[in-house]
Batch of 2 targets.
Target 1
Amino acid sequence: MEDKQYDKELKGFLWHETGSTVLRKGTLQIKGEELYSAIIKSQNNKGEDKYELMISVGLLHLNEDKKSERSPDIGGPITWNNNQYKFGGWKKMSEKGNEYTSVSLRVKDDEDNPSFNAEEKVPF
């Protein structure tokens, strides 16, 4: 049987995490830019505590008024390494019955609304 190769660029999966704790949330400044961040405590595969610094790249919104089944369940604009993207997440169920979120990024282009604000609905 031939192994299929999938393009993973700008795509991913998020799973339910029950073993993590947010210890601290706040801001830090790097090169004059204020970044929203959090320290997360979880365990590695050996059960040992680990601590991670998470930096927010954008504010997401639930899409309660989906225009179609293909519309994301959650999304919003994000910025990573000075590049702007639109984030979309779709609720899924694995063959084993585990819930997860399939995620995708799309490069934000000039045709996208540059004045999108947090009060508007998800634009995709």
Target 2
Amino acid sequence: MGVIQLIGILFRALLANRAALAMENLALRQQLAVLERSVKRPALRQRDRIFWAWLARLWNGWRAALLIVKPETVIKWHRQGFRLYWRRKSRGRRAGRPKIKREIRCLIYRMSRENPLWGVPRIQAELKLLGHDVAESTIAQYIDRTSKPPSPTWRTFLKNHAA
């Protein structure tokens, strides 16, 4: 072994010991904080559980510094977090058809407003020419639905033209 390798190994050992000491110090300070805010029995909050689950992943000697709960409890918290993560990750997306872009919705509204004689199929054909593939039912949701004045009845027509 060369001198440089020995110095590297010594340097790494010093840093590893210092990191382990810092982790132990952090663990003990966290336990003191829990005990200071508790009256009789240590009341662990959700953030305390998360802290211990992450510390267990980062530091191998976490069991020696743990005094307020059993190590099996920390492992149980870690498993619960793992289960919650994958349950949320594998949860299905929203059901139904995805929303169309605001730009296309405004275009549908504008086309239907400016061309009142166009129906849904014509608007769909024009959108297809522009490169937007939108279903008829979607277009029907976004067309302009301004109410037209009611047409006069036959009674009104005859009354107006009887003379």
